[in-house]
Amino acid sequence: MPINKSPAPRSAKYKRRRLVLFLVLIPLMLIVLAGAGYATFLFSSAKLAVDNSYDNVRSGEASSLRDKDVDPIKDSFSFLIIGVDDSTKRQANNGGNPRSDALILATLNVDDNKLEMTSIPRDSYVHIQSDDNTTNRYTKINAAHAFGGPELTMKTVEDLFKVPVDYYIRFNFDAFLEIVDALNGVDVDVPVDFTEQDSNDKAGAITLKKGKQTLNGEQALALSRTRHIDNDIERGKRQQLVMKAIIDKATSIGSINKYSDVIKAVGDNMKTNMTFSQMLSIAKYGMTNDIDMKSLALKGEDAPQDGIYYYQLDENSVESVANEFASQLKGVNKPFPNAMPYSEENTNQ
What we know:
This protein is α+β, with helices and mostly antiparallel strands. It has a domain at 39-176 and 272-328: Nucleotidyltransferase, domain 5 (2-Layer Sandwich), CATH 3.30.420. It contains 11 helices and 15 strands. The strands form 5 sheets. The chain has a 7-stranded mixed sheet with strand order 1-13-4-3-2-7-12. The protein has a two-stranded antiparallel ribbon with strand order 5-6. Strands 8-11 form a two-stranded antiparallel sheet. Helix 2 (36-53) packs parallel to helix 8, helix 5 packs antiparallel against helix 8 and helix 6 runs antiparallel to helix 7. The two termini are 19 Å apart. It comes from Listeria booriae. Belongs to the LytR/CpsA/Psr (LCP) family. Pfam families: LytR_cpsA_psr. InterPro entries: LytR/CpsA/Psr_CW_biosynth, LytR_CpsA_psr.
């Protein structure tokens, strides 16, 4: 089959004084900075939002790749961020089961205060197999959510990297738009000129020029979604760029009075298998530790089949990234002991 090589991805490394792993933790982390009455209101609102968003995927049991249950922050753990478009139009086109539009796998090493993450291209050609074998096929990884929701998505990512996925958090595009707008926009150094459709699929509705600027919800979403200008690897980098911008804005003291709207946006548009107490412990940890954030780059190439576009992940790249993730999770053996250690050089094509 024809294969056209994609531009080589490059990894990036960031240092942050504060860690916000999940957008729902934003209001929790700054409770101590607010007045007593408002802090109580925020805390109660956040707890209600998380409680309403809770989904007992796996019924609280540990991943099959774990020897025992995980207790954050006592243990290092992994989590999968799932972005979906579950708009009315998308539901009509997909029979009510949206495919994932963004997947970011991350590990938090609580011993070394290190957060590592990688974006998984949505068109990655992978094997998807459910536990009951009702789904057993090779196709795009974003189909896992359509076939079996967060649970099958977590299993598919586990099968790909051979490392446990302990938790997930799923957001839809409405949450993304509302959170950015609730923060009165986010500051981003846009890496490239582009034109993209908006959340209502209106073609050419969003045009951005390269350079530093404040983006509203629609613009930030367009930057995260656009992929026709290069490839899914670069798209994943833009998603992480926007995520970092949201973290920067949300952790500024000036954003405290906007948190009521942020909490509402999160609560209305999120699902997760983390409990409120688990999230609160992570928030407290993030407030008291310097976190080293590192982006791991996957590589691969275009691999169309029968007129359908797929992205074929490079096996060596997957193995080196998987081993790097495993090294951050205490008690998890490296799944590919013969793979080369992860490095920027090893991800270049």
